[in-house]
C-alpha cells in the first residue's frame, strides 16, 4: 500500500522524459528543430540588467539561459531565465510574441534553454523584468531537473553530476567563480614580482620531488613504462639551472593515495623557484601573496572559516619545529641526542613509529600528533629534521636540521618550502638514502634522477623554492568543507552494473 501511495505522489520520471522526447519529435517534424540553431546574439546578462535598470528601462535587450520556472495564465505568462550571472523574470504575452510563438512557448519545459528579446520594464509588483517580443527555443532539455524546492542535496550525486549542481545551487557556481579569481590573482601577483609561468611534463620516467606513491602507465609508442608526476620540483629546478631565475607552474599532480576531505588523487599544486634567495625570502613572498589574494578575491584580509577567524593582515607567526613540539607537547627535542631516547619518548607519549624511523622522523611524528591542530592562525613552522627533507639545504650551524618551513592555517599544511639543496654530492647521498628506504619497502621514497643530477652538476645558484596546495587555499577562501567542493569534477568511484 505504501509503495502505491508513493507512486501516486511522485511523478513518473520515465513518462515525463517520454513526453519531452515526443515534444522534440513534434518540433522536428514541424521544421522547428532547436538543435539546428547554431548561435544566439546575447546583448546582456541578468545581473547587468538589474544593476543598470535605470538606464536600460524601456530599451530592448536580448538574453539567453535556462528556463527555471514557468507560470501560464491564459493569454499572458511569466517565466524565469537563469544565465551566468543569476536570473531574471520575463513576461510573455500572446499579443506581443504572436499566436504561434505563444503556443510553442506554452509547450516549453523547465530546463529548456531559451533566448528572449524584449523591453526592460518593472512589473506592478516592482520586479525588474523583460517584456518579451521574441522568444526562441535554443536547446530542448530531455532530462528532468531535480525538484526545485528540495534542490540537489545528495552530495555524491552533486559531485557526479556537477553540471546539475551548478544549475540548481547558485552558491556552488559562486565557489567556482571565486576559485577562478583566486588563480588569476595569484598569477597577477607573481607576474608583478617578475616570475614566469612555465609548463613541465606530466608523464615522467622518474616521479620525484615529493614523498608519494605515483600512478603508473604505459606508453605504447616507445614501449616504456611511465609515471604521472607527483610534484613539479625537479623540472622547475632544471630551469633555474638554465638561468630562468624566477619560474612557477600551476599544474595537476597525481598521487596514488587515499581520498578524504583534504585529499584527492589529482590536485592542483603550484610550485615556484627563485634564484638568489632562501627560505626566508619564500616566507616573505608567501605572506605578501596570501594577503594580496584574499584582498583581491574577498575584499578583506580577515577570513572566516566555519566560525573561526583567521587574520592575514598581521605578521605571520614564525616558529621552529622543535619550539612547536616544546610548546604543545612539553618535550624539548634539544635534549634528545639518541634514537633510543626518541623511541622512549614516543612510547611514553603514545606516538606510534616504525622501526625504520630515525630520531628526526620521530620529532616530525610528535609535531603532527601534538602541534598541527593548534596552528590556526597563519604560521610558518621552520627548521625540519634532515631525515624528512631529502631536497633541502642543511642549516650550517646544525646539520641535523634543514632550512625548510611548512606554512599552516586552520591546522592544515598549506605550503612547503626550502632553501633548495644545490650541492650535487650531498644530493646524490640523499638519493642513495632514499633508495635504501625504497628497498626496505617505503613506497613513497624517491629514486635517483640522473638527468637532474647532471643539471645540479652544471651548477644551480642558491635558490628558494615552495609548493602551495591551491585546492586547500581555495577551501579556506570559499568556506568549502571538503576538497571535493572546490574541484569541479572530483575523483569518484565508477558506478557500474547494479549500482547505476
Q: Please give the largest β-sheet.
A: 8 strands, mixed
Alpha-carbon distance between the termini? 27 Å
Overall mean pLDDT = 93
Task: List the quaternary state of the chains.
Answer: single chain
Helix % is 25-40%
Strand content: 25-35%
Number of strands: 20
Shape: elongated
Number of DSSP helical runs: 17
User: Which class of secondary structure composition applies to the elements?
Assistant: alpha+beta
- Which parts are unreliable, with pLDDT below 50 for 5 consecutive residues or more? 1-8
Taking Cα atoms only, what radius of gyration do you get, to the nearest Å? 29 Å
Query: Strand order across the biggest sheet?
Result: 6-10-11-20-19-18-15-14
Features:
17 helices, 500 residues, eight-stranded mixed sheet, 36% helix, alpha+beta, five-stranded mixed barrel, disordered N terminus
Q: How does this model look, in words?
A:
This protein has helices spanning 2-9, 13-29, 46-51, 53-56, 94-97, 99-106, 155-160, 162-168, 170-192, 233-241, 279-298, 321-329, 339-348, 359-371, 424-439, 450-458, 470-478, and strands spanning 60-73, 76-83, 86-93, 113-122, 128-139, 196-197, 203-204, 216-219, 224-228, 246-254, 266-275, 302-305, 308-311, 317-320, 379-382, 394-395, 398-402, 404-409, 412-419, 463-469. The chain is elongated and about 90 Å long. The protein has 500 residues and is of the alpha+beta class. The model is unreliable at 1-8 (pLDDT under 50). Helices cover 36% and strands 26% of the residues.
Amino acid at each position: 500500500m505504501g509503495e502505491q501511495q508513493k507512486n501516486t505522489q511522485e511523478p513518473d520520471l520515465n513518462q515525463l522524459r517520454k513526453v519531452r522526447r515526443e515534444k522534440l519529435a513534434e518540433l522536428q517534424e514541424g521544421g522547428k528543430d532547436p538543435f539546428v540553431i547554431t548561435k544566439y546574439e546575447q546583448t546582456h546578462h541578468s545581473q547587468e540588467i538589474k544593476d543598470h535598470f535605470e538606464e536600460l528601462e524601456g530599451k530592448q535587450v536580448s538574453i539567453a539561459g535556462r528556463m527555471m520556472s514557468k507560470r501560464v495564465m491564459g493569454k499572458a505568462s511569466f517565466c524565469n531565465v537563469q544565465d551566468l550571472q543569476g536570473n531574471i523574470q520575463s513576461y510573455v504575452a500572446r499579443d506581443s510574441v504572436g499566436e504561434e510563438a505563444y503556443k510553442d512557448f506554452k509547450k516549453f519545459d523547465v530546463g529548456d534553454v531559451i533566448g528572449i528579446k524584449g523591453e526592460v520594464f518593472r512589473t506592478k509588483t516592482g520586479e525588474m523584468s523583460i517584456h518579451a517580443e521574441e522568444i526562441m527555443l535554443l536547446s530542448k532539455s530531455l532530462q528532468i531537473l531535480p525538484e526545485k524546492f528540495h534542490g540537489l542535496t545528495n552530495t555524491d550525486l552533486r559531485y557526479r553530476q556537477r553540471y546539475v549542481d551548478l544549475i540548481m545551487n547558485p552558491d556552488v557556481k559562486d565557489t567556482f567563480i571565486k576559485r577562478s579569481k583566486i588563480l588569476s590573482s595569484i598569477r597577477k601577483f607573481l607576474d608583478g614580482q617578475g616570475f614566469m609561468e612555465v609548463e613541465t611534463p606530466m608523464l615522467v620516467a622518474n616521479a620525484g620531488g615529493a614523498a608519494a606513491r605515483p600512478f603508473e602507465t604505459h606508453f605504447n609508442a616507445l614501449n616504456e613504462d611511465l609515471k604521472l608526476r607527483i610534484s613539479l620540483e625537479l623540472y622547475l629546478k632544471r630551469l633555474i639551472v638554465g638561468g630562468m631565475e624566477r619560474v612557477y607552474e600551476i599544474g595537476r599532480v597525481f598521487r596514488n593515495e587515499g581520498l578524504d576531505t583534504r585529499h584527492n588523487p589529482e590536485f592542483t599544486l603550484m610550485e615556484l623557484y627563485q634564484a638568489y634567495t632562501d627560505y626566508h625570502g619564500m616566507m616573505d613572498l608567501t605572506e605578501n601573496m596570501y594577503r594580496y589574494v584574499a584582498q583581491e578575491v574577498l575584499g578583506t584580509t580577515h577570513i572566516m572559516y566555519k566560525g573561526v577567524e583567521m587574520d592575514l593582515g598581521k605578521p605571520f607567526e614564525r616558529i621552529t619545529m622543535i619550539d612547536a613540539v616544546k610548546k604543545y607537547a612539553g618535550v624539548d627535542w634539544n635534549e634528545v641526542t639518541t634514537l633510543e631516547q626518541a623511541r622512549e619518548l614516543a612510547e611514553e607519549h603514545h606516538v606510534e613509529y616504525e622501526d625504520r624511523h630515525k630520531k628526526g622522523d620521530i620529532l616530525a611524528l610528535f609535531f603532527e600528533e601534538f602541534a598541527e591542530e593548534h596552528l590556526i592562525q597563519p604560521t610558518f613552522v621552520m627548521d625540519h629534521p634532515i631525515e624528512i627533507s631529502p631536497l633541502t639545504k642543511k642549516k650550517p650551524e646544525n646539520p641535523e636540521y634543514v632550512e625548510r618551513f611548512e606554512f599552516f592555517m586552520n591546522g592544515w599544511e598549506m605550503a612547503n618550502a626550502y632553501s633548495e639543496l644545490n650541492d650535487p654530492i650531498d644530493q646524490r647521498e640523499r638519493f642513495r638514502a632514499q633508495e635504501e628506504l625504497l628497498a626496505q619497502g617505503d613506497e613513497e621514497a624517491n629514486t635517483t634522477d640522473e638527468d637532474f643530477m647532471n643539471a645540479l652538476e652544471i651548477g644551480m645558484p642558491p635558490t628558494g623554492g615552495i609548493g602551495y596546495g591551491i585546492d586547500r587555499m581555495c577551501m579556506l577562501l570559499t568556506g568549502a568543507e571538503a576538497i571535493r567542493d572546490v574541484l569541479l569534477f572530483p575523483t569518484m568511484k565508477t558506478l557500474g552494473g547494479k549500482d547505476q
